[in-house]
Design brief:
Length: 181
């Protein structure tokens, strides 16, 4: 199956041939119909990947603190090896997916094979997603519109959880494309 992956060391993005995921307990196995490419999030990830190690550190001060803590407990060389290993792992891109349920994992209720669902699945032909990160797509809602569910929900959560003044108009320019598999 095909999946969009990014090399965190170089920022290179590729469509890779990867094994089809299994359907663990509590998950849905979904055949992707389409997914949203968020030009903001995914551009940021590509730029992060292309940055040198120092710039990566500047962009993620919380991770720097974690690395410094690890140096204290594990030592410098094992920590550097762990950081290099992490940067060598390809990053699966994407978080807005719509598809059809192929398999329902053990313990999952409320979903059936054949259901259309929106999820935070990656850009891949098949994804395994925890059931609590999936929602049925109502009849009459297009796959393209449903693909924006996760993006819209994350923006709503920011409004509800954020420290915004009452009556403040919040505007975010969202520039996205929809991929079809």
């Amino acid at each position: 199956m095909k999946q969009i992956l990014q090399n965190l060391k170089t920022g290179e993005t590729e469509i890779a041939e990867v094994p089809c995921p299994a359907c663990p307990p509590g998950h849905l196995l979904i055949r992707t119909v389409c997914s949203v490419v968020s030009q903001g999030t995914e551009r940021m990830l590509v730029e992060f990947g292309k940055a040198n190690l120092l710039d990566k550190a500047r962009q993620q001060p919380d991770k720097v603190r974690m690395v410094l803590d690890k140096i204290k407990t594990d030592g410098l060389l094992p920590t550097l090896d762990a950081v290099r290993h992490k940067l060598d792992q390809p990053l699966a891109m994407g978080y807005c997916n719509v598809g059809v349920v192929m398999e329902v994992g053990a313990g999952v209720t409320g979903f059936a094979v054949g259901d259309r669902v929106a999820s935070n699945g990656k850009h891949a032909q098949v994804v395994a997603v925890p059931k609590h990160l999936c929602a049925k797509v109502p009849d009459g809602v297009s796959d393209e519109a449903a693909a924006f569910t996760v993006l819209a929900a994350s923006r709503l959560a920011m409004l509800f959880e954020g420290d915004f003044c009452k009556g403040l108009l919040v505007y975010e320019r969202i520039s996205c494309s929809v991929l079809h598999s």
